[in-house]
């Protein structure tokens, strides 16, 4: 795990192909494009959560007890921010107020909360094993079972992480949970489509933000784009209205998203090579 910067205002812990990390990084890139914005000083800290770095003692104990990415420290925060919605809302409220315009703030907060109430695993992995469909295990179980030299603080943190996992992702692949996630996503996307129609952004030749280009990109847009792209790439395009798919495909070609993913899809594939070799993904 990269060491935090002593020079940056914030340190954003992120993994390139984590859906929720993409949401936070998109906020970081969109914010400075909005009216009156003064860019925050943010250093990106690469963390390979696929290799268990989010479960390392220092990160789990001192940064994010959820053992997930993203997380953000610094900036005078009383405690680290431990998910993409809190990172986004903090940056919008403190640095990029145009991303949370008063006339749309209640709708933005509501839709973001509902998006993040879903279990991402339920709609981003269509092929769990039969065992995972019953119970999705956590690698924490093996760490606790096979490690005898854990510090008391680390053991307590691991036990807390396992509790969090069991209350959230352990049953994310059960058919009833997946079906509810699909239904909720369809409802959310339908509501967003209605907002796009109301604002005049719907089905424009050039892609417009949800509440129209006069309003500009909001905190909702920073999470919506990676969400739509991931649904499509994960084989769940049928959940996303065609107009939103076209919008996302057009926005993905733009300069802001290029700074987030550098032309890569949202899903990592072995043919792309090791994530740790993608140096351009390790800084903002």
The CATH topology assignment of the largest domain is Glutaredoxin
Under the CATH scheme, the architecture of the largest domain is: 3-Layer(aba) Sandwich
Proportion of residues in helical segments: 40-55%
| Gap from first CA to last CA | 17 Å
β-strand number: 3
Question: What's the Cα radius of gyration?
Answer: 19 Å
By CATH reckoning, the class of the largest domain would read: Alpha Beta
Largest sheet properties: 3 strands, mixed
CATH homologous superfamily caption of the largest domain: Glutaredoxin
Mean pLDDT: 94
- Envelope shape: globular
Tally of helical runs: 12
Q: Give the helix/strand class.
A: mainly alpha
The number of domains: 2
Domain GST N-terminal: 8-99
Protein name: GST N-terminal domain-containing protein
Q: What does this entry look like structurally?
A:
The structure is a single chain. With 284 residues, this protein is mainly α. It has 2 domains: 1-97 and 256-284, Glutaredoxin (3-Layer(aba) Sandwich); 100-136 and 171-252, Up-down Bundle (Glutathione S-transferase Yfyf (Class Pi), Chain A, domain 2), CATH 1.20.1050. 47% of the residues lie in helices and 5% in strands. The protein has helices at 19-30, 57-62, 84-94, 105-117, 120-124, 130-134, 140-146, 152-168, 175-199, 219-233, 242-251, 255-261, and strands at residues 10-14, 42-46, 71-74. Strands 2-1-3 form a 3-stranded mixed sheet, covered by helices on one side. The protein is globular and about 60 Å long.
């Amino acid at each position: 795990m990269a060491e935090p910067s002593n020079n940056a205002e914030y340190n954003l812990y992120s993994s390139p192909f984590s859906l929720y990390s993409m949401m936070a990084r998109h906020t970081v890139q969109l914010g400075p494009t909005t009216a009156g914005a003064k860019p925050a000083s943010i250093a990106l800290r690469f963390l390979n959560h696929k290799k268990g770095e989010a479960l390392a003692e220092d990160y789990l104990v001192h940064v994010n007890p959820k053992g997930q990415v993203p997380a953000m420290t610094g900036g005078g925060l009383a405690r680290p921010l431990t998910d993409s919605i809190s990172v986004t809302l903090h940056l919008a409220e403190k640095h990029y107020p145009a991303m949370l315009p008063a006339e749309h703030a209640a709708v933005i907060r509501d839709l973001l909360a509902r998006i993040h109430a879903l279990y991402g695993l339920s709609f981003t992995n269509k092929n769990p094993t039969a065992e995972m469909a019953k119970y999705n295990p956590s690698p924490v179980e093996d760490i606790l079972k096979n490690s005898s030299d854990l510090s008391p603080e680390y053991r307590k943190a691991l036990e807390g992480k396992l509790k969090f996992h069991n209350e959230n992702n352990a049953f994310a692949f059960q058919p009833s949970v997946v079906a509810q996630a699909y239904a909720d996503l369809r409802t959310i996307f339908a509501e967003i489509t209605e907002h796009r129609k109301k604002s005049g952004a719907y089905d424009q030749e050039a892609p417009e933000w949800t509440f129209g280009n006069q309003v500009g990109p909001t905190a909702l847009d920073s999470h919506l784009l990676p969400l739509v792209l991931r649904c499509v790439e994960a084989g769940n395009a049928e959940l996303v209205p065609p107009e939103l798919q076209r919008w996302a495909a057009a926005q993905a070609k733009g300069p802001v998203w290029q700074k987030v993913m550098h032309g890569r899809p949202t899903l990592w594939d072995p043919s792309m090579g090791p994530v740790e070799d993608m140096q351009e993904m390790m800084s903002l």
